[in-house]
Amino acid sequence: MSKINLSPKQSLIVNLGEGSYLIEASAGSGKTRVLTERVKNLLEDNSSKILAITFTNKASEELKERLELDKLKNKNVFVGTFHSFCQSILESRFKLLGFQKMPHIFEDESDRIEIVEEAIKSVPYFTDIYEGLESKDKTGYKSKVLSFISSVKRELAEPEDLITDEGEEHLLLLYNEYQDILKSNNAIDFDDLIWFVYKLFSNNEAVQNLYSKSYNYIFIDEGQDLNKAQYYLLKSLCGDQIKNVMIVGDPNQSIYGFNGSAPKYMQKFFVEDFNAQKITLDENYRCSKQVIDAANKLMQLSVEAVNYVIEGHFEMYKASGEKDEAKYVVEKIDYLINLKNIKCLEKENYKDIEGEIDYSKIAILGRNKFVFKYIEELLQEKNIPYYFKSGNVGVKFETIFMKLFDYYFRIKINPSDKLHNKRLKTLLKVNNFENEDEISKSKYDYFQFIREIISVLTEDNFKKSLQSISDFIKKSTTFNDDEKAQIHNELEEVIELWKEYSFNNLKPTLTGFKNTISLGLIKRDLKQEGICISTVHTMKGQESEIVFLVGLDDGTFPYYLAIQNGGEELSQEKNNLYVAFTRAKRFLYVSYPSVRMMPWGDYKSRIKSRFLTDF
Ligand SMILES: Nc1ncnc2c1ncn2[C@@H]1O[C@H](COP(=O)(O)OP(=O)(O)OP(=O)(O)O)[C@@H](O)[C@H]1O
Fold first, then answer.
1. Above 60 in pLDDT, residue 441?
2. How far is CA 20 from CA 17, 188, 238, 254, 296, in A?
3. What would the pLDDT profile of 64-73 be if each residue is shown by its tens digit?
4. What confidence tens digit (pLDDT) does each residue in 92-114 have?
5. Closest Cα partner for 498 from 463, 458, 452?
6. Pocket perturbation via mutation, ligand 1, pick of 33, 540, 545 by most ligand atoms within 8 A of CB
7. Using CA atoms, how far apart are residues 549 and 584, in angstroms rounded to an integer?
8. What is the pLDDT at residue 523?
9. Which of 60, 108, 367, 438 is deepest in the core (most CB within 10 A)?
10. Is the CB of 250 inside a 6 Å radius of any atom of ligand 1?
11. Could you give the 3-state DSSP secondary structure of residue 136?
């Protein structure tokens, strides 16, 4: 195992004795690195049983890689997200929670929306009110119901307790309907995963005991992102048995308040409940001096620029408009790429950037995805390669063929899934998709072929069956070449995912495969070449040599609603900007347009983000 040079403060943390610790540290201070090294050390002792929880699949993949799990003799370690940890428990304990079969995860927001619509329609009184609403208000109403349902689960609350305004009692009824519909589909949503396992631990001492005996060390990365359900899940898992818990986090990077996350769970609750010792790590190993200075100025911090800190560059640009901002970014990119292996950038003493500057070392970040419109157009015009970074999502199919495949596959492995059953009928425009006569009249008569293949699909013939679909597509005269290529790519993706899933699971099952995809736990590494374009939320925990941070006009960053609501919401926007700044290792270019085109076509003048007034 390769050893790295840790700073004295870092190595102190890595070598701490038994007990619970809160490592509160700033961005780029090596929190994840310290956590990894400590886990590595502990694993050298065969009696260590470790649970390491991260917040994103990407972070757990990175942790697994850094731990070189495949080379370890001691395999008593589970690295994953809260959701994957809970899924693994649910897979063997679902009966204790009242399910006859392992429930399926309805991962897509559109699934949740459809269930809410069904819940509304199940009560004639609501249906009348709902149907009378304008389309925009219907969307708003559904979001309100969904957010209420999520809050109940994330806050571990009784639904009644969350009714604050008079006249909101209808939410209780819709909550119950929503849960009943999910259950009748033998399905759960993301929030349920944590909620059910928390309930399992709280109500079943024997199971709680079994799991708390399975680990003697627990680690949580990005602890500022804990919400109530996650924190209490941790607490109930530990019970009286697990005393060695380390949480690493940075309160200034708390940006998921809208999901119920808050730094108080690590800073206050954890410290009190676990009698945890707090250790601060105020160094930065990621960023150049200029980036650290800018981040310190933004947050009024005094993070140390450690001795060997690299040189870099910070620059801010006021563009005349969005097109000018795009031009600025793309011209700068051209300039940097042409410098190639730079020895200096404007100043003589800038060191060489590690290796040659190429597109893969550049990221363009923004508060939301709408700020990239003109930049994307210009990148396309100039043939500059780029890709959009995707978050924690499962696989989405675009072709009708694969949508039909997906729906029917879900129904086959979960016959209770009425939601996708309905979607399948709607897509096929039939009443009964098992009726051959109806299918042959359907526009998509190739569904008959999909049905035959899926009817006999098993874990043993999965790959072969999918390959036979591929052959069918190749020979088919129904599709043009572009459609064939697209279906082929989507099929290949499923085959690759299956290969990975069945390689990693001793007893692969079709249900396990589907749920693993839903959680985004397996994902084919699509070729991501060129410049990375991402929202700040998706880029959290990651870094890039050169960062362009665009759309820093007030109203866009901070977002206008946060300005209206103020308070915690606005301070989370500032944290988000801090996260954005500290993703840059070397060069950080910040820009904003003085004029922005509104969606309805007129132009509005903009001023620089309120967070940048001192810059
Ligand atoms: N002692 C060290 N020597 C050299 N590089 C280090 C050291 N510690 C950390 N790094 C590097 O600094 C960068 C930041 O480390 P890491 O991702 O662990 O920080 P973090 O505190 O988790 O960051 P953030 O919270 O901002 O995502 C990484 O590139 C890491 O390899």
1. yes
2. 9, 33, 12, 22, 29
3. 888 887 666 6
4. 899 999 999 999 999 888 899 99
5. 463
6. 33
7. 10
8. 60
9. 367
10. yes
11. helix
Q: What is the CATH number of domain 289-389+528-605?
A: 3.40.50.300
- The string of pLDDT tens digits covering residues 18-39 is 999 999 999 999 998 899 999 9
Is the separation of the CB atoms in 195 and 156 below 8 Å?
yes
> b or e along 341-354 (b: 16 or more beta carbons within 10 Å of the residue's beta carbon)?
eeeebeeeebeebe
Q: How many angstroms separate the Cα of 311 from the Cα of each of 261, 291, 339, 541, 564?
A: 35, 9, 17, 22, 38
Q: Which protein residue has the closest C-alpha to ligand 1 atom 19?
A: 30
The number of beta carbons lying within 10 Å of the beta carbon of residue 461 is 13
CATH numeric code, 8-91+194-281? 3.40.50.300
| Residue 237: how many other CB atoms lie within 10 Å | 22
Give yes or no on whether 8-91+194-281 and 289-389+528-605 have one common fold. yes
Q: Is the ipTM of this complex over 0.85?
A: yes
Q: Where are the domains of the chain?
A: 8-91+194-281, 104-185, 289-389+528-605, 400-519
Place of tokens 């979960």: 414
Going by CA atoms, what residue is nearest to atom 6 of ligand 1?
285
CA 421 → CA 424, 425, 426, 434, distances in Å? Answer: 5, 6, 9, 11
Q: How many CB atoms lie within 10 A of CB 93?
A: 18
Whether 223 lines ligand 1, by a CB cut-off of 6 Å, is no
Distance 484 CA to ligand 1 centre (A): 44
Q: Which residues are annotated as a binding site for ATP?
A: 25-32
Q: Coil, strand, or helix at residue 461? A: coil
Q: Check pLDDT > 60 for residue 347.
A: no
Rounded to 5 degrees, what are φ and ψ at 304?
-70, 135
| Mean pLDDT, residues 489-508 taken together | 85
| Between 370 and 533, residue with greater pLDDT | 533
Q: How far is the CA of 283 from the centre of ligand 1 (A)?
A: 10
Q: Give the pLDDT score at 497.
A: 87
